[in-house]
Amino acid sequence: MSTYAQKKGFGATIWDYLTTVDHKKIAILYLIAGGLFFVVGGLEAVFIRIQLAVPNNDFVSAGLFNEIITMHGTTMIFLAAMPLVFAFMNAVMPLQIGARDVAFPFVNALGFWLFFFGGVFLNLSWFFDGAPDAGWTSYASLAMASKGHGVDFYVLGLQISGLGTLIGGINFLVTIINMRAPGMTYMRMPLFTWTTFVTSALILFAFPPLTVGLVLMMFDRMFGSNFFVTTMGGNTVIWEHLFWIFGHPEVYILILPAFGIFSEIFPIFSRKRLFGYSSMVFATVLIGFLGFMVWAHHMFTTGLGPVANAIFAVATMAIGVPTGIKIFNWLLTIWGGSVKFTTPMHWALAFIPSFLAGGVTGVMLAAAAADYQYHDTYFVVAHFHYVIVGGVVFAIFAGTHLYWPKMFGTMLSETLGKITFWLFFIGFHMTFFIQHFLGLWGMPRRVFTYLPGQGFETSNLISSIGAAFMSLAVIVLLYNIIMTSVKNVKVGNDPWGDGRTLEWSLPSPPPFYNFKQLPLVRGLDAYWLEKMDGKKGMTPAEPLGDIHMPNSSILPFVIAFGLFVAAFGALFNMDDKAWSVPVLIIGLLITFGAMFLRSVKDDHGFHIHKEELIDDEDKGVKA
Amino acid sequence: MKRLAKWRLLSIFAILSLILSGCGEPFLSTLRPAGEVAEIQYDLMKLSTLIMVGVIVVVMVIFFIVLFKFRRKDEKIPKQVEGSHKLEIIWTVIPILLLLLLAVPTVSATFKLADVSPMDKKGSDALVINVRSNLYWWEFEYPGQGIVTGQDLVVPTDEKVYFNLISSDVKHSFWVPAVGGKLDTNTENVNKFWLEFDSKKAEEAGDLFYGKCAELCGPSHALMDFKVKTLSRDDFDNWVADMKEVKEPAKAETDLAQQGQDIFNQSCISCHAVTPSNTTPPEARFAPNLTNFGERSRIAGVLDHNEDELKNWLRTPEKYKPGNLMTDKYDPLTEDQLNALTAYLMGLKVQE
């Protein structure tokens, strides 16, 4: 991708990426893997819309349809949206706080490879008698009744990739707490770093409940325990609680970084400081906190009783307040600004009405008594696609265009970017707006077909046509990426011209050690302050000295690969296959062997010497 | 003049029907409430929509102002504003007030819809129906009346009907959109709620509401429909009386039907009952009760109620409801056997 890599030949480049512990390269890995899964999940979405375009369609069978919706949801949430968000966190957050890398570079690489192998494992279910078919929520009674190995792939795949996400989150927390540059106080951190911080805290508290739920289900399905077997005194509602105690914070794990990206875009392209910075920080923390108090609004119809429903209804409505604060702050950031309509700004501006629509239906859904009508209908499908696509996916597209130069040193075509935007924007609203009405007219979600004569025909067709527009948009984006990489026109430090935060003070892409000298941060929007004072770059906070860097290592890859192998053994052990136990043991040996090796072998990293850094300066930065 | 008035009336009706078509079908749509519960929920929807449209208007006005007014015209650096406490307080307090406006009716409605106290009162004459959901079919038991039926729920209008909901296999959800919101049928506990069916609205809907399963339950989740037949209280009492009269399996009336009954007794009766009394325990009722099969509105919940569709269903149930539990439970039927069985089943009626 970069010139640095191209000089090295293909095999060496692959090896470089397999062994890298550099946050910028790990970001690229997250971007590629997440993008790949995004395309897979998108194809699944297209199949769903083809099947539902006309009543009584037989494009896919009923059983296959359930597999497709399950994999669409699971892939998009766990394997596309989260890794893509992680890509930007990895690429940008350390630069924004003025750090040379994350706190634990080795663990960062391990996190990626665990996610990647978990995701690959889950998707391999397509080739082994069927994908999971109990919905991305995998409610226990249906998941327990599901035949074949689909649900086992779900349980094991998510365990592995969830482990990766969890250690990634912990890593970011430690990084932000410990590795901020001199002068970078908490209240000077860019909003994207703040949202990364709060998101990581959410990951830390939200993933353990999921892990617990998955372990219980794994024991039920593989080792004959009865946590969810009602006839043996088990309880399936427990799964719903565990899943949503994770699942609700999960949506904030996705949306907060999206808020962060937009909070960067609005000031940059309005040339104006973020309006109400401290209230934005406060709102972010509050959303993160309240996010844990509202999970049961996914269970209003489970029969928890009016007291629980009323409490969770009011708590849910309360989240509307900090979210509203954010919307108004963004609008007031633009107010009085000097707005340049770049591609990222297109996405950011379109995000406001789109997300607003998702937000207000969210408040409508919070009204418990009315939710009995909305729940599990296309109204809910419309709602969460407005929030997740209108919020998170818009942010991912915006972030891709915004940070592409910082990650790859080249600028995506603005013209193609705007074509992508308009196609996607139109397609998105066409697909999902009408679904609100489908739900209100009585169409349940997750139906593989519908009978004619219920008033669903026209609207479903419109919805399916919209999906075609979105697919076109993604194709244009891919074309844009390919063309940009082929042309390979390099750009400077601050290609948008109005960068405000530290990452724009660095070359694009930054050298592998990021900062030759750690910068001195004098306030919010540190780079902008320096520019306004007429300076070219940041004032260093330290004299030029040796830089301590970590060594590359293949061990993260090996550790994750071992678990991947072990998961196959565990899964096929259910069929009493003779080879399953040896495979399980070999897999675990690989993992624990690699961990042992890592523990006993001292790896002190290496130093870049002062002289080399000075040489770099003479030659221009090569990386 | 009279003709003009007629035209005016007609055009009003035309416009009205156009608006109503935006509200969905009267037998299915939550936007055409046909009972007290749906009415309460519809009112709540309208209130929340109204408040939210207000919010949207305010935001969009600001949005379009900033969109058009602050385009970059020169390279000047705009004034860097930190924030405004006054504005921030305004857009914190006003949303809180708006949400309170919504929260109060929400809480009150939530408690109202959960009030099932008449169910448990001694000597109460409230109608209670036990709903048991099964992989792709519904059973409706009237414990007070001592009858069991399936697929077509029969209810009296203009009174509160109370429901006990449970599932026999995986979780489903019981939903009659036009009449009221859904409640899940869990596998471990009984959920209770009530619905009320409005006679006037029921008439508009042809006295037949569509019911749906709203929780993913397997391949045929989409086909787990049921119907609700609404009757006046008197007609309902008659129906109950007619049902209760069937003490023994009804005798077939023709020779063909008699052959069908013989086949039925051999192959089907171990799962399907043809008497409405509920002597078998719920766990042993493996398939819908067929006492009044001839009077049902659909076959298997989704196919038109006629002999051809019945034969199609009996030939290959898997084709019409993938994953159903009837497939392969009986030997393939010859065309003669199908004719006989169809004649028998279509003749199963309790009301003439």
Report the top-level CATH class of one domain in chain B. Answer: Mainly Beta
Summarize the helix and strand pattern of chain A as letters.
HHHHHHHHHHHHHHHHHEHHEH
CATH fold name of one domain in chain B, please? Immunoglobulin-like
Indicate the percent of residues in helices of chain A. Answer: 55-70%
Overall geometry of chain B = elongated
Uncertain segments of chain B are none
* Alpha-beta content class of chain A: mainly alpha
What's the number of structural domains of chain A?
1
Strand content of chain B: 15-25%
Distance between the termini of chain B: 48 Å
- What's the CATH architecture of one domain in chain B? Sandwich
Mean of pLDDT of chain A: 94
In what order do the strands lie side by side in the largest sheet of chain A? 1-2
| Fourth-tier CATH superfamily name of one domain in chain B | Cupredoxins -  blue copper proteins
Q: Helix segment count of chain A?
A: 20
Unreliable spans of chain A are 1-6
What is the mean pLDDT of chain B? 91
Largest sheet of chain B: 5 strands, mixed
The CATH top-level class label of chain A? Mainly Alpha
Strand content of chain A: under 5%
Verbal overview:
- The complex is a heterodimer of chains A (623) and B (352).
- Chain A has 623 residues and is an all-alpha fold.
- Chain A has helices at residues 3-6, 10-19, 23-52, 62-96, 105-124, 140-145, 150-178, 191-223, 237-270, 277-290, 306-334, 343-366, 368-374, 378-408, 414-440, 457-487, 526-532, 555-572, 580-600, 610-619; strands spanning 547-549, 606-608.
- Chain A has a two-stranded antiparallel sheet.
- Chain A is globular, with a radius of gyration of 24 Å.
- The termini of chain A are close together.
- Residues 1-6 of chain A have low confidence and may be disordered.
- Chain B is an alpha+beta fold.
- Helices cover 41% and strands 18% of the residues of chain B.
- Chain B contains ten helices and twelve strands.
- Chain B has a five-stranded mixed β-sheet with strand order 3-2-1-5-8.
- The longest helix of chain B has 34 residues, at 36-69.
- The model of chain B has no long low-confidence stretch (mean pLDDT 91).
- The interface between A and B is large, with 89 and 94 residues.
